């Protein structure tokens, strides 16, 4: 198991290099001179030239890339063009909000999705199942920004229960968590339902029932455990995805997260922050994936034996 | 039960993760809103559309940062809401010769770190500002060799060439006075720990979220009425208006035109509308046929209905421009006659110029929604005088390069006269020495205008300067290197109980006299 984890961690190195190269190339060939964008339309040409020199923008592509990788290996992924602060600090300052939002979103989606999925599966084609599936379809199809705005209109403007923006007090976190959570909940519900349905029809479940096992134990113990693998995969993917920043939700609720930082940086041609951000997202995504793989072993001993 | 335990462990692990995540960085302090107890509030919450970039005034020139810096720093000279210059940290000033000004500084002023404000700080600040790539041009007229500390509270500042608008430049927020000790001690982190002499002291900056300031109880002039000011970063326009409606913020900057009626109709809110210093224009490439013919330029001015552009693109916020400057800029000629929509006259002029059958043209713009909308309207309206236009939308950097190189026919751009002085709004845009990147992207020039702009730059007497500028604007209007399109407005909304709030035309509004009723 340890060897496996180590191997997976080592595999991060080529992934990081590849990601860096792709992002660096894309940003490099994006039209637009960062120096001009930073200084605005009323800046004299001499100052633009001065700034280009300061930022090393006139060097050849490979020199710039080499310098970036060389510095990154030593933990320096550059300074933001706009604020002139280290990119790593800028990202880490934003990350707690993104982590909170992602964790709360997943919590909402899991606590809504798994129970609904189980009940739907055990009462297939019942009224509950039909309603749950329509709701899930709605949840998947509703765009986040629209749902967020509707929640704001209803809960903030009409009922005045929750604030409409910000992210420092618990009451401010409710609406964003709901917005993010419900769409993932829909996916998890559908996945739980189909995975459970598959398992419930298997022979060993019939055997368990035949030997007089209580239905709740049959479902929660025998069926759910074996249905968990695909569900965990989906949850892991959702979590990893949310950690990359939920741009729309962050924008609507004015949450200072990584996603918004990235969008603002792309608009401002703030290359170092975009590169650092993508790198960071790639790393967190890989880590969450690794975590999910370890969880498999934890849930299913058969998988654990394969990890060598 | 073993497997069920696993599920339980799994779920509890998730819960722990959530709690840890929620726990980290959560602030327990909630701002005093006062509403519930009926007490008068003393925390003012302001919502603006972007995060502060830096609180070091030499490190950035963006509006959100300036709006906060304005509360922390003072300038030598103040420019009030009526754009009049008044004493700031300098009590008085005097022009000694063509190049040199002498400033008497206010005594007994202390920085937020307890240091006394002296002439050495002024010298340090100006020399540092001159080095800045971001705002160096604002104080660029100053000769670094010509800054002379006479005594602790007297300083002489010389310019490279005679430069009459110096005072307006010194009133710009980028020329706020810094404390040498604080800057040196702060080093790289100075922008996160700014120190000024202003009515509010810096307290906290949550990146991407908010900046909090507290009252400076040792302020040298009238002290601030509220104890705390929080600038919250609410990027979505709609979200900002909703926050104002629900009482989450007390003042919302930059109300979008689409939300104007919503704020106006709400009985708990007040909408403020004041002319800003920004203008939008459609420029011709006067170095190129047929735009080198003044009749063609005039014809296009007559053929475009700028009033309808204001209605359609800006939803009636702001007004159609009569000339190159907004009316609140010093030196603006307020009695210029608007070209106005006159198709007959346009056709006549086209005929005179020999273009009765029109020609093909391109209008260049960047990916700015309002400019793209203008381009489309112009494209439609110019069909009436047989000009077939193609709209070219290019990326911002490319746009600046192409227009500076004169590769365009027509282009749409804006300009903000940040100093509120006609020199800033005319010299770079219409002087023949400023072709291309420096600002004159129309490549239009006129000897008389050059002469007037040069003279006004040197002339010390404001009345005479205004005369020169008036004459220059008459020529510019007549010669029409632009389609004079639009003068902007600042829009802000406040809760009804917010009093004493006035908008500054430059957009960085003072909050020292704001209070709650």
UniProtKB/TrEMBL annotation, chain A:
Positions of transmembrane segments: 9-29, 101-119, 131-154, 174-192, 227-253, 273-299
Protein's UniProt keywords contain Membrane: yes
Domain ABC transmembrane type-1: 95-296
Subcellular location per the Swiss-Prot or TrEMBL entry: Cell membrane
Superkingdom assignment: Bacteria
Pfam families according to UniProt: BPD_transp_1, BPD_transp_1_N
Keywords: Cell membrane, Ion transport, Membrane, Nickel, Nickel transport, Transmembrane, Transmembrane helix, Transport
Transmembrane found in the keyword field: yes
Main location: membrane
PROSITE patterns, A to Z: ABC_TM1 (PS50928)
Record's bilayer topology term: Multi-pass membrane protein
Similarity comment text for this entry: Belongs to the binding-protein-dependent transport system permease family. OppBC subfamily.
UniProt subunit comment: The complex is composed of two ATP-binding proteins (NikD and NikE), two transmembrane proteins (NikB and NikC) and a solute-binding protein (NikA).
Name of the protein in its database record: Nickel import system permease protein NikB
Organism the protein comes from: Alkaliphilus hydrothermalis
Organism lineage: Bacteria, Bacillati, Bacillota, Clostridia, Peptostreptococcales
From TrEMBL, chain B:
UniProt xrefs under Pfam families: SBP_bac_5 (PF00496)
Regions that span the bilayer: none
Annotated InterPro entries: Peptide/Ni-bd, SBP_5, SBP_5_dom
Residues of the Solute-binding protein family domain: 84-436
Signal sequence, start to end: 1-21
Xref: PANTHER family: OLIGOPEPTIDE-BINDING PROTEIN APPA (PTHR30290:SF9), PERIPLASMIC BINDING COMPONENT OF ABC TRANSPORTER (PTHR30290)
Family: Belongs to the bacterial solute-binding protein 5 family.
Protein name: Peptide/nickel transport system substrate-binding protein
Organism: Alkaliphilus hydrothermalis
Phylogenetic lineage: Bacteria, Bacillati, Bacillota, Clostridia, Peptostreptococcales
